[in-house]
Structures are given as structure tokens and as C-alpha cells.
Amino acid sequence: MTELAPMEFHPQPQAGEAKPWAFPAPERATLDNGLTVLRCHRPGQQVVAVEVLLDAPLDAEPAGLDGVATIMARAFSEGTDKDSAEEFAAELERAGATLDAHADHPGVRLSLEVPASRLEKGLTLLADALRAPAFAESEVERLVRNRLDEIPHELASPARRAAKELSKELFPASARMSRPRQGTEETVEKIDAGAVRAFYDRHVRPATATAVVVGDLDGIDLDALLADTLGAWTGTPGQARPVPPVSADDTGRVVIVDRPGAVQTQLLIGRTGSDRHDRVWPAQVLGTYCLGGTLTSRLDRVLREEKGYTYGVRSFGQVLRSAPDGTGASLLAISGSVDTPNTGPALADLWTVLHTLAAEGLTDAERDVAVQNLVGVAPLKYETAAAVAGTLADQVEQHLPDDFQAELYRTLAATGTVEATAAVVNAFPADRLVTVLVGDAAQIKEPVEALGIGEVKVVSAE
């Protein structure tokens, strides 16, 4: 019998030494036209991301024209003084680039992604869109029709309908935050090319704008490219608009948006809190994650795993508008959906979770898992240039220092269980929450009233 040769085993690969990671720090500069530029070299990121922030907030929209900022944002890619809408789209495609834009409470933002090898072409198209948008009457009319077509679909979405109602409940009717970001049917149908052009002329200029450029910039003379493209954009001098204070009423109450026959109830429970300038923000992020940030959070453990009421419930904090003087605000909310018959029991258990949290606090194990998930995955979260550019743009938009995100991760890792508990308990006080339920009022009103979590009123879904 032939003797088999002994097997040779290759050595098992061993993990290398962990490399330190920190959120990248940008370099700042100002072009001759007043445009502020943040750049960040990211080796290997061959798709360059560019974010341009315009100081054109929603509260700057003229009375009765809610949505004009959104139409203007969408119209930036619908032709320039050089190209028609079709030609502009074709030029973007030839460059392998994408250009998106949207309007929100802090302002209008344009987002460009383009291969590094075609960055000059991408920046040229972006500069043309900002410098000389066509705002052709036919294109604006089409965008208005598209927006009007979207509104019924948004109203049909329980989650979107709940968000609309919560904003209406939290903020005074005179505040822009109380109304839909992209306008209503009544206001959007009044928008025309003249209104869009007037809003552009009044608020869009390089002196109050910021551009963020992130990607592999090796071998690229970015200074020259910017000077020839975004640097050619001119406009009148201007100062940034003051940020008006945010006021809200978080008196505990319940609003049921009636959807007869609905088999599920959409929950949106919220109030306003401080923005990222507040020292409590890192602890609040950590505590909110422990409450409802993942599948292992308290809310999911009770409402999903133990009771089977839902596929998932989440808690989160979303900055609405930020100001260094403390007058900004964030939305602190809990969202999810439950089956209609269990709406009352689910809310009862949710409030029990909040009361238990206040009485007993978080555990060290919960805190440790949250830190691992929030801080440990950060290098993966920021693998793309677009993710880095988006966060840098958020920092500019929210008047934060350039090292805010890096400091946030360091602070999160050092935040203790007691601090996180205090922050989340203060963020979600059981008696100061506005609860919006989109569901069948005939089935859920009585059991919800029996909970005693606030006055209950019913409104139409229309």
C-alpha cells in the first residue's frame, strides 16, 4: 500500500495591527468670489463627491409660495444658458456624473458625484447650473405638475401623513416648520418661473455659499479647477440670514388621523429638543440608541420580540435647524407601526418602557453595545466620498466646527451609562410627548383614551 505524503498546511492568516481612525479633517479656503471651499483628500476614492450649500432656507420662501425652494432646487438641472434640459442631462451622462438637489429648513443643497478623471467637466456643469440656470417656463411648469402629482401619494403614506401631522401639532401655524417642506397643493400650484427666478435672485450667491469637495485629489490641480468653474460664478455680496428661534408645544396629547378600515396603526411620538451645540448631544445620541436604535434596543425587545406587536420600533434624533446660540432644535421621536387591535396594548407597553427606563436606568451592557455599534462601525460608514462630504456639509449647515464629528466619536466612547440614562430620560419624558396615530379611529380611540397619556382628538386623513 502506497504511503500518502503528509499534508502541507499553509499558515493561518493573522489579523494585522489595527490602524487608528478618525473622521477626516478638511482644509478650508475662500475663492475670489467669496465662495467658501472645504476640501478633503481621500486616497482611493475615485468618485469625487461635491456638496454645495446655498443660504436659501425654507423660512425665506415668500408667503403663500411654500415649495418654491424645492422647485428651484429641482430646476437647477433643467438647463442653463448653454444647454437645454435635454442637453444638460446628456452632458452629465457623458461625464458619468449625477447631480441632485433638495431644499430643507437650513437651505438648498446640490450634490454632485463624478469620476475623478472627469472632475473638470462635472464642476463645469455644476457651476453652469448655479451661475446661469435657465428656469425655462415650460420646465418649471412640468416640475410644478410633478410636485402636485406627488402630494396625493405622500398623503396616502401613513408614515408621511404622521410626519405632516406631528409638525402641524408641534409648531405654531405661523412657523414654516409647521407646514410641509415641499409645499401644499394650494401653494405649489401658484409657483411659476417668475417666482423661482425671484427666489434665486434674492438668495443664491457665492458669497453666502459653501462647497465641499471630497475624493482622491492626487494629481488634480483643484485650485485651478475651482477658479475656472465655481470661481466664475458671480453674485452680489450678501450676509448669511439670521436663524430665527424655534418654539414648540410638547404638551402631552394624542392626535388620531382617521383611516377607516386600516389594519395597522402608524405611530409617531415626538417632541423637540436641543441641537448638536448642546453639551448633552453625545449622551443623548447614546441613550436614544439604547432605547430604540437597533434590533437589540429596549423598544424592539419588548414590542417586537416579547409581544410581537410590530416588525420594529425606532427612536431617533433629527436636527431641524441648528444655531450656536442655542436657539436651534432637533426632533426627538419614536416611530413604528403595530396591528390595529393591539394599538392600545402596544402604547401601554411603550409607556411602561419609558417609565422603567426613568426608574431603573440603562445597563452597562446596553451602553457598551451602543458604543460598539455607533463608534466601531464609523470607518465602514465613511468608506465613500459621498458619506464624508455629506457629513462635512451637515457640519457647515449646522454651524459646527470642522472637527465636530471626530470629537463626537471620542466623546461617545467616553460617555458613561449614567450620563446616557439621564440624557434619554430627559429627551423622552413620558408626560411631554405628542403622539400621532394614523389608523382606524373607531377601533383605537377608546383604548388609547383609557391609557391616560393625554387628551385625544381625531382628525380626517384628508
Strand and helix layout:
Blueprint: E1 27-30, E2 36-41, E3 47-54, H1 68-75, H2 85-94, E4 98-104, E5 107-115, H3 119-131, H4 137-156, H5 158-170, H6 185-188, H7 193-203, E6 210-215, H8 222-228, E7 253-258, E8 264-273, H9 281-292, H10 298-306, E9 313-321, E10 329-339, H11 343-360, H12 364-376, H13 378-381, H14 385-397, H15 404-414, H16 417-427, E11 434-439, H17 441-449, E12 455-460
Parallel strand pairs: 2-6, 7-11, 7-12
Antiparallel strand pairs: 1-2, 3-5, 3-6, 4-5, 8-10, 8-11, 9-10
Provide a quick synopsis of the model.
The chain is an alpha+beta fold and 462 residues long. The protein has helices at residues 68-75, 85-94, 119-131, 137-156, 158-170, 185-188, 193-203, 222-228, 281-292, 298-306, 343-360, 364-376, 378-381, 385-397, 404-414, 417-427, 441-449; strands at 27-30, 36-41, 47-54, 98-104, 107-115, 210-215, 253-258, 264-273, 313-321, 329-339, 434-439, 455-460.
Walkthrough of the structure:
With 462 residues, this protein is of the alpha+beta class. It has 2 domains: 27-232, 2-Layer Sandwich (Cytochrome Bc1 Complex, Chain A, domain 1); 253-460, Metalloenzyme, LuxS/M16 peptidase-like (Cytochrome Bc1 Complex, Chain A, domain 1). Helix content is 40%, strand content 19%. The chain is built from 17 helices and 12 strands. The strands form 2 sheets. Strands 1-2-6-3-5-4 form a 6-stranded mixed beta sheet, sandwiched between helices. A hairpin with a 7-residue loop joins strand 9 and strand 10 (329-339). The model has no long low-confidence stretch (mean pLDDT 95).
